[in-house]
Task: structure prediction
Amino acid sequence: MKKLLSLLFAFVALSVCANAQKYVGGDISLLPTYEEHGVHYLGYGGNNEQVQDPVKYFADSAKWNAERVRLFVNPANASSEDKNEGVHQDLDYVTRLGKRIKDAGQAFMLDFHYSDTWTDPGQHATPMSWNSTNPDVLADSVYEYTKRCLQHLVANGAKPDFIQPGNEITYGMLWPTGHCYPSGANYGTGTFANFVKYLKSGIRACKEVCPDAKIVIQTEMSRSTNVTTFYNTLGSQVDYDVIGLSYYPDWHGPLTTLDGVLSTLESQHSDKEIMIVETGYEPKWQLDKPTYTPSQLGWALSEDGQKQFTADLINELNKHSKVTGLFWWLPEDNEFWADRNPARSTWWNASLYTQNTGKPLAAMFELRRFIESNTTGINNIKGGNAKSDKVDDKWFNLQGQRISKPTVKGLYINGGKKVVVK
Result:
């Protein structure tokens, strides 16, 4: 039994803040792989001190309050090329990383790919073990798999706070049967009806095992009209909470394009939150991505340019009251000290680390500005009796997230008070 010490001051009854809780962080799915390859993560500054736990560093130094992690059905079935690019995340891998995130007091977003390998607008292969073209059978596989994974995560201290039933599903998922256009039109033998069936099955399992988790439906922005068309076509056919977007300026255009999409979504889907669940901008240019040039976008190819992009993106997002989340993709990409045993076959040029020094870039610390006005979420908690010393079963961390009774020492909220678990 942990000893609880009430602090000398007590909260007055806590009220729900008018502004929604906001989250900032990264998709750090490859972090354990980099660590296994001996990568050195250093702190910001000139002392070259190695960071022992990057997850804790993201929480304590970068001031991020959330992380995102992808999950594949059986990544052992992925091609060698895809494995070399980062397809490793099976359930055990994700459980260990998810628990680290939760133990650091951060929110955990789980990204189901429902495939053995990458999924995006150009590929959504059905898992090899789900060997069927019967939509009813596949829908049952989605339900049973989702339920089993979530039960395992919950039982091992890695309960997700946000769940994505599918990754970048602008054109459906579980191809070919769930392949479709954002307009609802069929794609070959795939139908939008099948796609919705699969979504409903996944969401049903999420609601049963993690009823408090918010459901995120993610698309990308290769064409802004596809985004708005998709969510209008989906309508109220499935029960979800958050519109999730991928926004990469060198693929999707300037911030004015993003602004138009956000404004339309806010107008047409006012009951939904919106999150940028993937973004990034590189301090040095990838020549194989010529869609837009730096001169068209307005940011230099440098550390300062990356930081300025981040600042400008945050300024844009903060104009939209429905936007509650911002996640950088693959911020942890860092091969420093792993030259003879690289974790990936290439570098992700939009990482938040310098690959040849292991030091974080300035944009990592600029991201915190997105939540500066609401860094903890404490004001979102409905408080108990501030004068009571009663300990109840409703515990919250300092990010404002409901948690089970704490098993590690730290500062928490219980019964309308700050309490220290020692």
The first helix runs from residue 31 to 36. Residues 1-18, 379-390 have pLDDT under 50 and may be disordered. The longest strand covers residues 214-220. The radius of gyration is 21 Å.
